[in-house]
Amino acid sequence: MRVAFAGTPEFAAMALESLLEAGHDVPLVLTQPDRPAGRGMQLQISAVKQLALKNAIPVLQPLSLRLNGTHAEAARETIHLLEAARPDVMVVVAYGLILPAEFLHIPAFGCLNIHASLLPRWRGAAPIQRAIEAGDKKTGITIMQMDEGLDTGPILMQEELPILPGDTASSMHDKLAILGGNTICCALKMLKRKGALRSRPQEESLASYAPKLMKDEAILDFSLPAETIANKIRAFNPFPGTQATFGETSLKIWKADALPETSPQHAGSIIAADIGNGIMVACGSGVLRITEIQKPGSKRLPASEFIKGFSLDNGRFS
């Protein structure tokens, strides 16, 4: 099939690679404009653009797709080029721009979105992280027929994936990226064979939203249950990482697990810090065992190594 593609980060690039490996003809790719990043703030091209250029696929990078306002002319030119590409379908994955209605109906089979949750749960920008933070036991991939709403279109296909106790946002990202590529290829294979896919509407009463992670959310509150804190640590790994202050030092907490033990000490108090057990912290309920931690200007360390060079005696996280 002729598959136009819109996406930006590594998650989307893995889907594009799957489409190419499956033999689909990709005549055009849309991705976010190059933006400065890193310490040197040099212009960086997206993972999708890198893959498209490697495969000699034309790339469009409009600042906006709105047909009114400052960038309306560029948006109209994008529509013209998309129409000229004559795609059978357009696959959209973590693109970062809202597609107006004028775009949705250009491909013969419309626009299909790969979303990293079991819709209608976790619509929005951070479905992987919010699922882990909420303590969900499973997530998955949804292939959705796009409409004008935010992840509200009819569901065409879903594949589930368990969230294991040790999974972080990073590990689930990689698993779901592979599953997303496989699932969209399966959907397109069925679409080509049958000429249509059976859809079902989303149940609005079950909808929940996954807003973008904000850095001020990363500060840990030890008055909460240990399990809640451990989930947040996994959800915010690798970005933005969770933080806790010890004295005047802000520490990054990268890995921890919740223990059902109880402690009479105040929330945030260090119960124990030793090579065998890691750093044990009293919480609102339960105990948090920190196993990987980082101080400013240093690398991540196992807690057993960290405590050799950082005294936690008679201290408390705040």
TrEMBL record:
Formyl transferase N-terminal domain location: 1-183
InterPro entries in the record: Fmt, Formyl_trans_C, Formyl_transf_N, Formyl_transf_N_sf, Formyl_transferase-like_C_sf, GART_AS, Met-tRNA-FMT_C, Met-tRNA-FMT_N
EC number: 2.1.2.9
Keywords on record: Protein biosynthesis, Transferase
GO MF annotation terms: methionyl-tRNA formyltransferase activity
Domain Formyl transferase C-terminal: residue ranges: 212-310
CDD domains registered for this protein in UniProt: FMT_core_Met-tRNA-FMT_N, Met_tRNA_FMT_C
Catalytic activity line of the entry: L-methionyl-tRNA(fMet) + (6R)-10-formyltetrahydrofolate = N-formyl-L-methionyl-tRNA(fMet) + (6S)-5,6,7,8-tetrahydrofolate + H(+)
Binding residues annotated for (6S)-5,6,7,8-tetrahydrofolate, in chain numbering: S117, L118, L119, P120
Family the entry assigns: Belongs to the Fmt family.
Function (record text): Attaches a formyl group to the free amino group of methionyl-tRNA(fMet). The formyl group appears to play a dual role in the initiator identity of N-formylmethionyl-tRNA by promoting its recognition by IF2 and preventing the misappropriation of this tRNA by the elongation apparatus.
Record-given protein name: Methionyl-tRNA formyltransferase
Species this chain originates from: Oxalobacter vibrioformis
